DNA sequence: CACCCCACCTGCGTGC
DNA sequence: TGCACGCAGGTGGGGT
């Protein structure tokens, strides 16, 4: 499900429902996520009240009133539902937090690549230390990226996917941002000039903002059991559209595998230089 | 360092 | 119908 916009949409949807809720029970499925706190650590959250929800990159942070933090990463297929008992049971549910209001916060994850980890008061989750600049950070500048990448050969697509540099860009929005900038995905980052970095940063911000405003690319299942058919409101221009005509020039779009991930681009609008 | 590869999982669509 | 295969929006550990 989730790149930065989807996680942000989930955060905004859940925050008004969860803040003020007290956890009264935690049940854990038999199969564990790739990274998941021990059962007793999760059970220790019982009695705590949610004071805030924040986001860092693709990580969602649930802040509790005694200072603990619940770090949630949805991986590829993780979903969070805010449900009542009236909702039918879902498959692949690995964690259920029962709440004082009678609602439940349900974590579902088919592939179990997600993470749910508890951290004590005052401890910063180590994973966050690796997370790069937020896309809207004032410290994210063309000059900084230019300086950081001089003489590097790494393809710009792979650079965008590296969350240690800019946080939250995933495989979909990397292709979309490069198309918007008319930049070939294999362009070595060291070859990119200041002006192009400026345009790329702008494109990233615009595309992510639009995606958030539209409710994410896919199903944002924070609501209830109806599993709200996701607004496919974001119109992707190139992602997943190999063979279809480029929306700019009509040339068939191309799929290319880079670092093991599908990459989509227009060979005419995004020429190799 | 910089960068790549693969592991970690399940499900679904496609083509034989 | 069955089966093998490729593919899927994530990270992170280990190798070159």
- SSE succession: HEEHEEEEEEEHHHHHEE
Mean pLDDT: 92
Low-confidence spans: none
* Sheet with the most strands: spatial strand order: 2-9-5-4-3
Q: How much beta, percentage-wise? A: 15-25%
How would you describe the oligomerization state of the chains in this entry? single chain
Q: Report the sheet with the most strands, covering strand number, pairing sense and barrel closure.
A: 5 strands, mixed
Shape: elongated
What is the count of β-strands?
A: 11
Instruction: Determine the structural class based on helices, strands and strand pairing.
Output: alpha+beta
Helix content: 25-40%
- Cα-based radius of gyration, to the nearest Å: 20 Å
Q: Note the gap between the termini.
A: 34 Å
Count of alpha and pi helical runs:
7
Helix and strand layout, with pairings?
Elements: H1 4-18, E1 23-28, E2 35-36, H2 39-43, E3 50-56, E4 59-64, E5 69-73, E6 78-83, E7 93-99, E8 104-109, E9 115-119, H3 126-129, H4 142-149, H5 156-161, H6 171-181, H7 194-213, E10 254-258, E11 261-265
Parallel strand pairs: 2-9
Antiparallel strand pairs: 1-7, 3-4, 4-5, 5-9, 6-8, 7-8, 10-11
Helix pairs in contact: 1-7, 4-7, 6-7
The protein binds a DNA duplex (16 and 16 nucleotides) through residues 1-3, 6, 31, 34-35, 58, 73-78, 92, 109-115, 127, 130, 152-154, 158, 162-163, 170-173, 217-218, 239, 259-262.
